[in-house]
Every structure is written in C-alpha cells, then in structure tokens.
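SEVERITY: medium
COMPONENT: batch folding queue
REPORTER: lab tech (J.R.)

DESCRIPTION
The queue accepted two submissions in a row. Attaching both inputs and their returned structure tokens so the on-call engineer can compare them side by side.

ATTACHMENT 1
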Amino acid sequence: MGLADIRRESILGLDNIRLDLPIAGIGSRSLAAFLDYLMVGALVLAWTILSVFLASLLTPAWAPALMVIGWFLLEWGYFAGMEVATGGRTLGKMAVKLRVVTAEGGTPGPGPLLARNLVRSLDLVFGLPLMVFDPLSRRLGDRLAGTVVVHDRPPETAPLLGRVPPGWGPRELALVEAFLARAGGIDDTAATLEMADRILERLRRDAPELLAGLDTRNDPVGSLRRALQAEG
C-alpha cells in the first residue's frame, strides 16, 4: 500500500465510507427498530379503530380500503417523516442514540431519507440478512440511498501515538488515530480488522522493527496499538 493509498483511506474506507464514523451494529439498530415499530403499532391500532368508526358512518365496504391505505401511510410516513424532520432520527433512534448520515458523515437531504424508506417493506424480509453480512450493517434502503447509521455521540478522543514511523506525515497519523479511536468498540466488524491489516501492511514496509514479537495475525488492532505505543 503506497502513500497515495493511505492518503485516500484517511478520508474514505470500505465502500467509500468515512473511516472515523462510529458505525452502528445490528444489535443497536434492531433495538431502535423494535421501539419504532411499537410506536407504529400503536398508531396502526388507533387508525384501525378510527377506520371502523368512519366506515360505520359512511359504508362498511370502505373499511378495508381505509385501513390498508392508512397502514401504508403510517408506516412509511412515520419513518420517512421523522427522519426528514429531525435530520436522520426516529424516536427509536433517539432512544438508542443513533442517526442516519451520508457516506461522508453529513446530514442527508430529504431525497435520500425518503428513498431509504421506499423499500422498507422489502427490508422487513431481506434487511436482517443483509445487515448480518454487510460489514457496515446496511440494509437495502441504506444501499439505495447511500446512507449509513451511526452512533450519535461526540467524537472519541484520539489516542496519543508514542512512535511515528519514518516517512509518515500528518495525514497518515490522522488516519491511524481516527481508526484506533473507534476500534475496539461493541460494533467492531470485519471492516475494522481489514483496515487494521492494511495499516499493518504499510507499517511492515516502513518500520518492520516496530512489529517484532507482536502477534499481528490473531490481534491486529492490539498489535497496532503496541507497535505505535498508542495511549488514550
């Protein structure tokens, strides 16, 4: 991996997603969805009762149509409307402290937020398997809209590096500090290990003596911390 590669990765990583984004895993996302669907269920129940009442005033044949249309609008409208109104959050995401962001970490516009909810019905079937095998825990809607879900929290304090390999400048150090700040959390994925291996590969070329005696195969992140004497 050359200097140009590591400079590119200091901004974007796997699938062009910013490396320092605190990606939310399947556990936290599932909890947020569960809370949201409790709210949607309460709204659907209220609409069902209201539909039956309205149909009794008009004609009973209208009840099924009113209920089906209302159910669709409530489910899609709740998620899409909440995310557009709050900049990427629903009540469930607020409770679990999650947020929808763009690949660069910014706030999505109304278009992507509406698009990611268009296929929510499909994601009820295919979303979980996709999230399990996707290192960024994206469902179909996220892929369609180019979004990811992250932990909505202040940035972690970057660790202090006690060693600087020869030829590494501010951008390389910023990459490693950002990576080590988020590595080791509860939502580590295959992408974390892949990025650690890439940095270790660069380190083997520039300063192999720093890796002497370290188990880089079984503990790549820990080896990287020890090689660079990262503290914090």
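ATTACHMENT 2
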Amino acid sequence: MTRATLAGIGVAFAAAPLGCFVVWRRMAYFGDATAHAAILGVALALALETSIFAGTVAVALTMALTVTILSGRGYAMDTLLGVLAHSALAFGLVAVSFLSGIRIDLMAYLFGDILAVSRFDLLVIWGGAALVVALITWRWSGLLASTLNEELAYASGLDPKREQLILTLALAITVAVAIKVVGVLLIAAMLIIPAAAARNLSQTPEAMAVIAAGIGAVSAVVGLRGAYIFDTPAGPSIVCVAAIIFAVLSMFRRRGDSQMAGR
C-alpha cells in the first residue's frame, strides 16, 4: 500500500500540470488517443524483450506525431483521433494475442494494477514525473503563450510547433508512467478531471496547476483507501474520487455564481 500510494501521488504530480494544458487546449481526445496507443507499445516491448516504458513512450510519441502530421491534410481532428485511437488499441490487443510463451494480464494494462507496483516501477514513475515537471517548468511561459494565442507567441519569438512537440513528449512520458497505476482506459481521466476540478478554485494558470496536483494526490490516497476498505478496483476507485471532487467543486461554484448574480 505504501508503494501504491507513492505511485499514485507520482502520477498525479506528472499529470496535473500537463492536464491543465490538455484542458486549456481542448486536447482531451488527443490524450485519449495517445493513451490507447500505449497497448501497442506494450505488445511491441514484450515481443522485442525491451522496457515497457520505452515501448509505450515510443508508440505514444509516434501516435502524437502522426496526428500532428495528418491533421493539416483535410481530415477533421476528431475523426482522425477516433480512427487512430481505436485502431491502435485494436492492433495492440491483436498483437498481444500473438505473443507465445509470455503471460500478460491485459486487465492490468487496461485498468491498472497499482497494488503490483514494484520498487523499480516506483523509480520509473517518479523519474518520469520529475522529467515531465521539469519540461513543463522549463517551457511554462512558451507553452502558455502558444496556448493563449499562437500569433502572440510568434510575435514574442516563440515557435508554437516546438512547444506542441514538447507538450507531446511530456504527454507520452505521462502515459508511459501512468499505465501501471490507472491503465490505458483511465489515463485520460487522470489528466482531465483533476485539472477541470482545479479550474473551479484557481485564479491564475500557476495556481490551477498546483491545485490540480493536490486534487490528483488526494484522489490517489483516498481512492486507494476506499479500494482497500470496499474491495474495489484501485485504478477506477481513484478516478471515482477525482470525479466526486469535480462534481462537488462544480456544484459549489454554480451556487456561488447564482448568489453573485442575485446580488
């Protein structure tokens, strides 16, 4: 439980600042597509007998770059993401079925298996989280400027495409470290829900990132405790707690807005 808690907090710290940019840029489906591609990365890593972290990062990056290249060629973004996301997931599941002599628990990769996190996994998760936080901190001003207004970013001497590439790299790393904790199908939830909940409490972008990290960490700790008490799946329990926090904060925000309007 100690390793599981530390793993959940590590993923929350990685996903929080990145999730804010996903929300601001309306990239929710983009994150989902990148996460779905991770299953294909798992299959390739097992087939080539290499690191699952390296395999998932490579495939997630390939997916993100493919979307970036094809998005300007006449395809609607939501259609393109839908095709690539579900295709990558399907090909990954089929590829896994061809692996002979290798035992693989698909449910663990689809929904996470945080209680099976080892000390090495913990090192990878926190190393990846530190790398993501370092990338976001290093390029915070550039990422924020290109998110708010690309023309303003160009006028400031920034290259929005380069900032997009950095964001894509951070997303691929986050997917790779989170797959063990919440699984492919729930990674997007941990990116989006804490950030969306933090939006109800924050006045500045920096505050939103910090509050999102706190909400993600609380969701991990409370979700794990709830899973232990009620004997429920750990990954989905963490996401459920995050969703409840989002619902409560949204309700209080609407009540506050109604009171202000009444005055």
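NOTES FROM REPORTER
The mean pLDDT is 85.
No errors were logged for either attachment.
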